[in-house]
Design a protein that fits this description.
- The chain has a single domain (24-78, 91-178), classed as Pnp Oxidase, Chain A (Roll), CATH 2.30.110.
- The strands form 2 sheets. Strands 1, 2, 3, 6, 7, 8, 9 and 10 form an 8-stranded antiparallel beta sheet that branches. A two-stranded antiparallel sheet has the order 4-5.
- The chain contains 1 helix and 10 strands; from the N terminus they run ββββββαββββ.
- By secondary structure, it is mainly beta.
Length: 180
Amino acid sequence: MGGGGGGGSPSNSPGGAGGSYPSTVSSSKGGGGDGGANNADGTNGSNNTGGGGGASSASTTDITDQVSAVTVNYVVEALEDTAFGSTARTNTAGLQNNSVTLTVYASYASSESYATLSALVGTKCYIKVTPASGANTATNPGFELTNTFLSALPVINANLGELSTYDIELQGGSYTVDVT
């Protein structure tokens, strides 16, 4: 899906040159249960190596040309570990509670945002966001969430005289940074 072609993508799609928008936003659908992942289009991704019932990066769909904004939140919950006799409250690290929020152009063509994302609703999936196109490096890291969950997809959000967009949030999942 990535790269060029029309099908409802706006002409002002984000690019990596200015650094204000991600150059790559990829997603893939996780398999339910303990098998491998499926492709984002719902077909079987038998070559995937993702373990443990989650999604992997083996089969992704680039949706860069359909995203106008993205926020990746790396969150570790604070657990209070204050003991008797302490003079101040203290915390220790708990579980990760990560999320990704995307602002997506609404497009209903067969390979555009709605078709790609609707297949992910109610599933664990994988998403990777990079600041610019090209290989992942220390200066162009790939921020990844594996086994993140998409619980809802707005089907339409329209205003007169504006390009139709909707915000989606993927919740949870393991956060990693790819610099290789």
